[in-house]
Amino acid sequence: MLAQNSCCYVPLLFKYYKKVPQEYYQCLKLLSTQATKQSLSTEGPLSEYTQRVSSGELSEDSHQEEVIQHLQQVYHEVTSFVRPAPQSQSGRSLFSFFKKPQPQKIIAPKGLYLYGSVGGGKTMLMDLFYETVPIKEKLRVHFNSFMLNIHARIHELKIKSGKGASSFRDEGSKPFDPIPPVAADITQESWLICFDEFQVTDIGDAMILKRLFTQLFDNGCVVIATSNRKPDDLYKNGLQRSNFLPFIPILKAHCNIVQLDSGVDYRLKGSGNKYSKYFLNSELTPDNNAVDNLFKFLVSKETDTVRPRVINILGRNVKFAKSCGRVLDSTFEELCDRPLGASDYLVISKTFHTVFIRNLPQLSITKHRSQLRRFITLIDTLYDNRVRVVIVADCEPKMLFKSDEKTEIEDVERALMDDLKITKDSEDAKAAIFTGEEEMFAVDRSLSRIMEMQTDEYWEKWGKQIN
Asked: What are the entry keywords (predicted)?
């Protein structure tokens, strides 16, 4: 399910996400001859990591070295793993999936769940593994984007069935479960999946993870994941968390759990106090406005004119006052005051290579609860899609997130409590969605990413991909 403020658009998700499998997944045969496996025995992420340390591209880090050894072990196991030939799908109708499945479980190598504090190099190490492993049915994806695609597939399957999931029944008496056919399709397309930012904040995701991943693992899927939380803390204090808890031992049974905490945030290391793409409103004047000058410079390379822009997102028209080509000059109000969610920010990140965020206030859990939640999602999405960001704020970066105690329940939260029949004295009233705990946990990651995204190094690295 989508974030709460955009869940009403779930029926329209497939219009956009039906293209995602073609974009993310590759259905090619695995190169798995014994000679190839033997020739790869001295290759993999460890060799690449060692070379980058030797060249000075990476710093020596004993904590990272320990993790890369674990990834090298997974590398050897998956490259020597011979998967059973998939059953032929030719001639099968859609409704053949509705019959009670009798698949044979595939015992695949264990994956790896890597967790630790922000900026320690978790994603970098996973990407080294992904880049070097010679598996063609592989996928590297942000966990939030993956779950959006899962919900879109489920919705599409329900539409094709011609009936709602609650009313459609298989040959027995149980309601139709779309999870097995969705998991089967995913595994056929990509049986090695690398998840960045494995986190669970949405109750809709939490409720299906056990069934979904049980099917994926039974189908022989191997999972590599990075996260800021250890498995036992996933969906911590989440709404109806008792229904989520059975997922944790399943994850542990199929992934080795490794912690990476070097005590260094490499996104900030060496940056000093240089915030080259982060500006303070108080320092800008009509005669000396570095932000306007930067916008003019960037749009000089575009073939479009400066104009308002209307983007159709999942059947809705979302208007922005100022853009030019693939450069969006927006405000915090446009991006975070409106009811936008992860799916909206994903479309924005695919439409623009550079996003200006003006008039960013100091964000507190008390005054900007909904906006803070959206802003964190926005930054995560832009970062994962390598979008360049310019920020114009009211305060220094380290003062951007104000930690204060939340004392009041917002109207939207009160409505959710009423729908779920949650009283203010019940245990569920202390869930993270109402207390703001999840947002405050995420601010360190968000700030670390903001600091990296506005440096010259980040801009130069991802600017090379812009033509």
From this structure: ATP-binding, Nucleotide-binding
The phi and psi torsions of 170 (rounded to 5 degrees) equal: -80, -165
Select, from the ranges 44-48, 93-97, 393-397, the one with the highest average predicted confidence (pLDDT): 44-48
- Bridge partners (DSSP) listed for residue 356: 329, 390
Q: What are the backbone angles phi and psi of residue 68, rounded to the nearest 5°?
A: -65, -30
Distance CA 395, CA 332 (A): 14
pLDDT for the residue numbered 163: 52
Distance in angstroms (rounded) separating the CA atoms of residues 193 and 215: 14
Beta-carbon contacts of 8 under 8 Å, excluding residues fewer than 6 positions away, are none
With tokens 């749009």, the residue in question is: 299
Least confident span in 218-222, 327-331, 343-347: 343-347
Helix (H) or strand (E) holding 347: helix 342-351
Give the type of residue at 74: V
Measured between alpha carbons, how far is 279 from 282 in angstroms, rounded to an integer? 9
Q: Are 236 and 202 in contact (CB under 8 A)?
A: no
Closest CA to 22 of 189, 138, 136, 215: 189
pLDDT digits (tens, 9 = 90+) for 394-411: 998 888 888 665 555 555
Reduced to 3 states (helix: H, G, I; strand: E, B; else coil), residue 446 is helix
**How much is the pTM?**
0.65
Q: What is the tens place of the pLDDT at every residue in 263-276?
A: 776 766 644 445 57
Alpha helices in 56-201 (DSSP H): 62-79, 122-132, 143-161, 179-189
Return the H-helix or E-strand segment holding 36: helix 34-39
Of 282, 227, 280, 281, the closest CA to residue 257 belongs to 227
How many other C-beta atoms are found inside a 10 Å radius of the C-beta of residue 186?
23
**CA atoms within 13 Å, Cβ hemisphere of 181:** 21
Give φ, ψ of 222 to 5 degrees.
-110, 130
Give the DSSP H/E element, type plus range, for residue 414.
helix 411-419
Q: Position of tokens 């990140």?
A: 349
DSSP codes joined into one string, 151-172: HHHHHHHHHHHTS-TTT-B-SS
Distance CA 305, CA 437 (A): 43
Q: Whose structure tokens read 């290579």?
A: 353
